[in-house]
Structures are given as structure tokens and as C-alpha cells.
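Example record used in the benchmark description.
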Amino acid sequence: MEMDLRLESSLWIGNKRYLAVLTGWHFKWTEVDKNRDKITVSVPVAEVVGVEEGRVEILPQKSVEDTDKDFTVFYVKRSSSGASHGFLWRLGRTQFSCPSRALRDQWTKHLRTALKTHCPLRPHRLLVFINPFGGKKKGRKIYHSLVSPLFELAGISSHVIVTEKANQARDHLLKKDLTGFDGVVCVGGDGMFSEILHGVIGRTQQEAGLCENDPTVTLQPCPLHIGIIPAGSTDCVCYATVGVIDPVTSALHIIIGDSQPLDVCSVHYASALVRYSVSLLGYGFYGDVLAESEKHRWMGPLRYDYSGTMVFLSNRSYSGTVQYLPADPLLSSPRDKTCCLSGCGVCSRSTERLFTNGSDSGSLYSSYSGQFNTDSEGQWVSVEGRFKCMSLTCMSSSCARSPLGLSPSAHLADGTGDLILVWDTHPLGFLKFLHRHTSTQDQFDLPFVEVHRVKAVRFFLAGSIDEEVDEESGERSDGKSGEERRENGDRNGFQQRSMGRVTPNKEKTATPFMCLCCKKAPTVSVWNCDGEMLPVTDIFCKIQGQLVQLYARGIEDGTAIHNSSQEGGSV
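Model output (C-alpha cells):
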């Protein structure tokens, strides 16, 4: 097929002659009339956005000069993103002139055929949700001025819905007919993404006949891809999966059909699903900041800085018990100084592990759920004490203000999350921990901080694990004491073992400091789940490996292929 698509001829860019060659997989052109320092530009067919007859411009405004012998090729062009750690993608544009109209038609036909042949996963029809209230309230303008023209160039049709109320997008995805759509696009921030995430996951489980409320069920991976056009305040998910916060870059990833699997954490209380999380599930400091910020919504984005300062000065810590199921330390570690980049080897190997031995239960990786019912995959560990904060994340959770994020070595699609425990400590020590998130210093290299790569987590308030114990006799209705209950691990069958024997809970405490902002500190915090407060405190969390697919490819590193400088200009 590659030989059938091959085409070679002389073409002109301006007043310079080039030898253009289409091999099926690549389209390249080389300056002919120079003997030395010849310019060659090579563009993968997979990164060609569109081909138009005539002399055409798309951004900032579309203009078409209809000429018989010219055609314009649009493609992905990378550039440095400055302070960010990914690459900005721009719409490269080169205008070619042919000796005849017949040759022009031959070139456009071959290029379009190559796109159809080698890019079968590109979306053709998208469902677009725009949040007009997120961030700086520029969602509509961003989509119609920057994104829509690119979709039109690529031949993508879109059905656009501007949301008017909370959960409108989620409810639409759960109830409406989605036949014919290749993906869903979110124009907004992390809150809008979370809404679409819940809708897409919920719809998939409905159609698969799976119960989301059952924490032992391994959920069905979602066939609909999710694209993110950043238009919010933080855009953490976009930053952690693309490396930059830029609408054009994200739109181009959607157009070429990139696919990045993403782990999702399902959060349960008793026998009910509470919420899904991908970037931050935080208790203590992170929950208090969110709760405080809700009192000052009139301040806009500044409320988070104000609330963070007030909560820090309050110097709170909370008692609780954390149980976690460790991941295999031989596969990866949160302290191994690696980064999850495009083509990540850890995530690729995890794909093979998660998706082998598909079963008849409806889930491609249902065998993965066995680890929560047997001891073969790992043993539960329990720790108890007072914490400044604890957090669980399925990604680095990097953003512009925290370039390395909560856990710099976290992976997007390895079926694990990183659990970060910050024990009660002196305020200056905690301030050092917080400040390191804004620099390249290791925030885990502190004596009061622990980080663990996990597959599941449970949290209980101090004493709640023994809430059924009779106050006078110390006995439960089943005849077991609280101590016996912990040692036998008979709470829902989870055991606290290490190396085949029962281990006592670890407990760390620090001398409490006086609260600087309130007379009486609260004894219970709230959970911050991707910017939403949870109504419950005792929770069970399970990492659902590669549950959704994003229109992204991960963060490209310095070895990514750069397009050379080319004649003809770019937009």
C-alpha cells in the first residue's frame, strides 16, 4: 500500500524549487537548487492536519485564494514551551505551487488517501461541552476562535452544547443517545473534566451491566475518548497529560487521534460509589483549604491563596487510620526519580499486565480484581496516628504553580496511585514541605513524610474501626474485642500483614501546637476529591487501571521529533 501512495515531483515554495516525496508514512521536501546546506523538512503523515486546494490560511482568520496550481498542507509543528516541560504544538502551514493543475490534484488526492490509510483512529464526529463560567469565562471564545477552525480544517464535525448548570454534561452523557460520536470534548477546567469523566464512566458501566457501587467490581474501560481544551483556573489534568496548557496544542492532539490511557480512582463509602478521582484525593490540609475557600467564592481564584494561608496558620492535624495495599515495588517506585513521559515503558508493561487473559465477565482486565480477594498480589499495611495531610493521586498532578506536582514520579496508566502521608510536625517543617512543591527539591525527603505506591486505600477516623465495641465490656456483638478484630483483619476480610505475619499498626504523633486562627480546632477534616468536598469521611479507594482514554500522548521529552525550520511560513 505504501508503494501505491508514493509520489515524487518538483514543487515550488515561493520562488524556490523543492523535491517533494510522499512515501505513505512521511511527506518531505528538500531544496533542489542548493549544493550545500540544503533544507529538508519531513512531516509524518500521522501529523498532517489537512490539505486544501489554493493558498489558504486558517488562523488567526481563515482566508482562501483559489488558484489552480497551488495547494496548502497543514501539519503539527513543535516549539519550546518555555517554562513548561512539554512542547507547544502549532499549526504549521506550507504552500506549494505545481507546474499544472493535474499535478496539484494528484498531490492532494494522494495526501488525503494517505491520511485515511494511516490515520484510521482520527475522530470524525465529536460531542463538545463548553463551560462558559470556568476560569476567566473565556470558554466560548477559545473554542470558536481557536479550536473550531482547526476541527473544520481536519474534517471533524462537532455537536456543541454550552452548559447552563452543574452536572448538565454528566446527565447528558448518562441519558442521551451517543451513537455516532467518536469522543467527547471538554472546554473548561478540571471541574468540567470531572463531570464528563463521571458521565462517560457511568454510561459505559450501564451499558456493560456493571454496578459502580460494588468496590469489588473491576469496571469496563470506556470506549469514548475524552479531549480536554483547557479553559479553567488550574487545568491540572491537561498539564499532567500534555505538558502545557494551550488550547491549540490540545486541539491538535484531538485531531490526530492521539490516545493516552488514564488510571482512575473509585471512591466508595460502605456499599456506594461516592466519586471518581484522577488528580487529588486529599484529607487534612487539602480538604480544609477547599472547605475554607467555599466561604470566599466572591474572591475568585484568589480565594485559594487566602484560604491556604489561613488554614496553614490554623496549624491543624487529624487522627486517623490508613490501610493500603502496596503495589509491586519491582515494577516502579514513587522515589525512583523517573517521569511518566510519552511512550512510558512502565505504563506499556502495565498495559500487558492489565489486559491479558480477558474474561467473559465483560471486563478486559477483570483478572486484575483478584488482587483484592486474595493474598497473592500483596498484603495490606495499616498505619495510625495524627496527620497534617494525606493525599492519593493517579498522576503527578503537576500544574503551572507546581511544575513537578504532588508526586513527580507518578504514572498515568500503570494501575497504581501514590499515597502521600504527612505526619503531624512543626509548622515550619510543614511549610518546607509545601514550599518544595513549587521547586525542584524532593518534597518526600523529609522525616515526617511517607510516600507509597498503592493499588487500594482505606481510611477510618480514629476509633471508628471499633465503633461497634461495647463501651463497658470492650466486646463486639460477635464476641471479638477490638484488638482481636484488628489482628484477625475481619473488617470486610482485609488483613494487615507484612512478609506473612501480622504487624502492629505504626503510630506517629507530635506535640500539638496552639491553633493561631481559632480557639478550638476541628477534630475532623473533609476530603477534597478533585476540587469537590466529599460528604463522608471513612472511605475505600480502588485504582481502576486504564479506565479511560484521553486524546493525548503524554508529555513529550527532549528526544521528540522536531520539525525543521521551513520556508512558506507558519501560523
